[in-house]
Specification:
The complex is a heterodimer. Chain A is of the alpha/beta class. Chain A folds into two domains: 69-188 and 353-415, D-Maltodextrin-Binding Protein, domain 2; 189-350 and 426-477, Periplasmic binding protein-like II (D-Maltodextrin-Binding Protein, domain 2). Chain A contains 17 helices and twelve strands. The relative contact order of chain A is 0.15. Chain B is an all-alpha fold. Chain B has a single domain (52-302), classed as MetI-like (MetI-like fold, Orthogonal Bundle), CATH 1.10.3720. Chain B has helices at residues 3-34, 52-58, 61-93, 109-121, 124-134, 142-149, 168-193, 197-205, 210-239, 241-247, 264-274, 278-302. In chain B, helix 1 crosses helix 12, helix 4 (109-121) crosses helix 7 (168-193) and helix 5 runs parallel beside helix 10. The chains are: A alpha/beta, B mainly alpha. At the A-B interface, helix 1, helix 3, helix 4 and helix 16 of A face helix 1 and helix 11 of B.
């Protein structure tokens, strides 16, 4: 064991060398340690470090300083992330801000350590399969109250507040504990979808009642294609159909009973019983697209694009998501969920609301920039830019320049929104409030569609999920009137 | 050794030991700490709740079901993988009966060795994509496509492999075994090649057949490799996260249908990231750690045998 140092020749490792080496080791280990603890829940840095020093004026309600910084992270899913890059360029032009951008599908993986470390980005589109659940973030005190943005003067008409320029009720899904903590920016419509071309070819009319709907499913079966396709691997989608049917049959009270965790939300609710039995009839009569219970959203939607099924449930992101798979003459059309006899809501009633939650963390370092960014998102210029890049509507009332030509599916949603009006648009809130209950009901729905349980058992399991959520003390904070 | 040399040795051990402490032991300690809290996973604020998470685990049917699934996997994955790879390794190395008195593998054994190793080259993520296409639940799936063409399955009711509570675990098992056999084939091959040929030749001269040679000569001499394989495969069976979470149905890391495809890791991740019950999930992690350790100890003890020197 030789050391090359002549001084220590023959003595093994010298003391001085050992000290030097351990010091070097220390240099490596000490930063690693602090890095590690930053990973978990190390720092509790509650002091906000807002760096902006700009003057607060009517055009600059948050006091943004020139040449600041802004970090934006968006979910790069059905809408892509080009729209956000376009916005950031506009923002940088206006304020000279140095913006940094990340478009990703792994919101949780990328951002959870940063939330725990107390250094989250400034604006986040917290969406997708790996979104960080909003109820969880809210409980942790991580979300900035967005009331200041909603009360700020609108960019297009400074005499109005931002909130007055939005579609009624569109900020409701962002409510947690009575505060708007997420801006659900995209105006989404949920329901069934079909191909205008296929229906024209076969001479089928748009079904307005459940019987007509089943009739078309049967005719489709006879023609050798499936009636209803759904994204069975993710039972979220079939729940859209089930829950919409419950809301339309039993009216808004039936919907609120579920959101408010009523002990009779499912078991003992006539609307829920009638609806789930109606959905089960599709299964029982063999009207599903073969194999659809095990398919992913991409697989089943692509099958539907290949005319292998008449209907599929989804939200209005469907058209943008399926852009590449949709034949040019497919003529995608939206369909409100058809009615059961004695329904409380009219056929035109739709689940509509805002999706794609944008949030500002309480611990963001550039809050003024973030709030100004959000205010600008709600301007006609930015909203039109979004419609162009992402083929979807925003919550800004008349938010799209009429000169922009929309695709057939998006156009049909515009008409559906108009037909429904504010009075007949509804939206469930429980998926944002109670993720565990949502997943439990989804599991039951998957069992029902696979014919492993009967409607009575589905009702029992859904009610059990509701009752379990009601036991959580945190659920007391949420209530809708 | 002289005094200075201890220091020299210690200097070398310090770095690996420190890395081990920082990256392995410290996270375990932290996880245990969090398992005693109601941490949501998204906030630095949490309360100490004692052993509440552990008592809740005892009443969690989904978690108990997941443990049971891991136990099943733990039994079947090592047994089947080891049996299949032992058989192949034997055939490839000493199973041949050609040539004059030589001990060699079956014809073309070198090509087989390479082919069997192919799956091992693929990462688990790629496996998941491959098998998703294989198990696809309509006529577009490889298995269903073939079965429908052969007329064994009705095109109107294809087999929903991953959406079938009775099949889902077995389907996952097949993937892991298919993936693992190649690696253990190579491991056992290496061990077999170190067995002196004279022993085989002696067995041949005594008129031993293939199966006798295998059970009386090869297996006892391979025992240490089998033991190692068992521990490794046991750890694989306790994990299974990547495949279960991507291939099985259900929102938030799969586990379906209706928890029939659940393993501890999927329940853990769903609670950790999706339900905001990270403290509770950490308790699951600790239970998983304890189980894995118990299994390793049992396996090593139970398979302990006298060592044969050669």
């Amino acid at each position: 064991m030789g050391s090359t140092s002549t001084r220590n020749n023959g003595e093994g490792l010298g003391r001085r060398d050992l000290i030097k080496r351990s010091a070097a080791l220390g240099l490596i280990t000490v930063p690693t340690m602090s890095f590690l603890s930053a990973c978990a829940s190390g720092s509790d840095d509650s002091g906000s470090k807002d760096t902006s020093k700009g003057k607060v004026t009517k055009d600059n309600p948050f006091g943004v300083a020139k040449n600041g910084k802004l970090e934006v992270v968006v979910f790069k899913g059905g809408y892509g992330d080009d729209y956000a890059k376009a916005w950031e360029a506009l923002f940088a032009k206006k304020w000279g801000t140095k913006t940094s951008h990340l478009g990703t599908q792994e919101i949780t993986g990328k951002l959870q350590p940063r939330f725990n470390g107390g250094n989250p980005p400034d604006v986040i589109d917290d969406s997708g399969a790996q979104q960080i659940k909003l109820d969880v973030l809210f409980k942790g005190g991580q979300l900035l109250d967005l009331q200041a943005v909603l009360d700020a003067p609108s960019v297009d008409d400074p005499s109005k507040k931002v909130s007055e320029t939005l579609i009624a009720g569109s900020t409701d899904p962002g409510l947690q504990g009575g505060k708007v903590v997420s801006l659900n920016y995209v105006y989404t419509v949920w329901g069934l979808w079909y191909s205008g071309k296929l229906f024209k070819e076969k001479g089928w009319a748009e079904p307005k009642t459940w019987d007509d709907f089943l009739d078309i499913c049967k005719k489709a079966k006879a023609a050798g294609i499936g009636g209803l396709a759904h994204q069975g691997k993710f039972p979220y989608y079939i729940n859209l159909l089930i829950m919409d049917l419950i809301a339309k049959t039993g009216g808004l009270d039936a919907m609120k009973a579920i959101d408010n965790l009523d002990p009779k939300a499912f078991v003992g609710s006539d609307a829920a019983k009638k609806s789930i039995e109606a959905v089960y009839e599709i299964v029982d009569q063999g009207l599903l697209m073969p194999g659809t219970n095990g398919l992913t959203h991409t697989e089943s939607q692509t099958r539907w694009n290949q005319y292998k099924a008449a209907f599929i449930p989804s939200g209005s992101w469907l058209e943008n998501e399926q852009l590449k798979q949709t034949p040019a003459d497919f003529d995608m059309k939206f369909l409100p969920v058809p009615l059961l006899p004695g329904s409380k809501l009219p056929f035109e009633a739709i689940r509509a609301g805002s999706g794609e939650p944008f949030i500002i963390p309480t611990k963001a370092s550039n809050k003024a920039e973030a709030q100004e960014f959000m205010r600008l998102m709600l301007s006609k210029e930015w909203s039109t830019s979004f419609a162009k890049e992402a083929n979807s509507l925003t919550i800004l009332k008349d938010g799209v320049d009429p000169s922009v030509k929309l695709r057939p599916g998006t156009q049909s949603t515009v008409e559906a929104v108009k037909a429904a009006g504010d009075a007949n648009s509804f939206n469930f809130l429980y998926p944002n409030w109670y993720s565990e209950m949502d997943v439990a009901i989804q599991n039951a729905s998957n069992e029902l569609m696979s014919k492993r349980i009967q409607p009575a058992e589905w009702l029992k399991r859904a009610q059990a999920a509701v009752d379990k959520a009601a036991k959580d003390p945190a659920s007391k904070k949420n209530h809708r009137a | 050794m002289r005094k200075g040399q201890y220091r020299f040795v210690a200097g070398f051990l310090l770095a690996p030991l420190a890395l081990y402490l920082i990256f392995v032991i410290w996270p375990y300690i932290q996880t245990f700490g969090y398992s005693l809290t109601d941490w949501s996973g998204e906030s630095p604020n949490f309360k100490f709740v004692g052993l509440d998470n552990y008592t809740a685990l005892f009443h969690d049917d989904v978690f108990k079901q997941a443990i049971w699934h891991n136990v099943l996997l733990l039994v079947f994955i090592p047994v089947l993988t080891i049996l299949i790879s032992l058989f192949f390794a034997f055939m490839v190395n000493v199973g041949g009966r050609g040539g004059a008195g030589g001990v060699s593998g079956v014809k073309g054994s070198n090509i087989y060795k390479i082919i069997y190793f192919f799956p091992q080259v693929l990462s688990l993520a790629i496996l998941a994509v491959l098998f998703q296409a294989l198990y696809r639940s309509d006529e577009g799936g490889l298995l269903n496509g073939i079965l429908i063409k052969l007329g064994l399955v009705d095109a109107n009711s294809p087999i929903e492999w991953m959406n079938n509570p009775k099949l889902v675990l077995w389907c996952l098992m097949v993937v892991i075994i298919w993936h693992g056999v190649g690696f253990y084939l190579v491991l056992f091959s290496a061990a077999m090649q170190s067995i002196p040929r004279e022993i085989y030749e002696a067995a041949l001269l005594d008129g031993a057949g293939r199966s006798q040679t295998f059970f009386r000569v090869t297996l006892p001499l391979l025992w240490e490799s089998v033991q190692t394989a068992w521990v490794y495969l046991g750890i694989v069976a306790m994990d299974m996260f990547v495949l279960a979470s991507t291939l099985t149905p259900g929102t938030g890391f799969g586990g379906g249908p209706d928890h029939h495809g659940e393993v501890i890791a999927t329940v853990l991740m769903r609670n950790f990231l999706y339900f905001g019950k990270s403290g509770y999930a950490c308790a699951m992690g600790i239970v998983m750690l304890v189980l894995t350790m118990i299994i390793s100890v049992i396996t090593l003890r139970a398979t302990r045998r006298e060592r044969i020197e050669f």
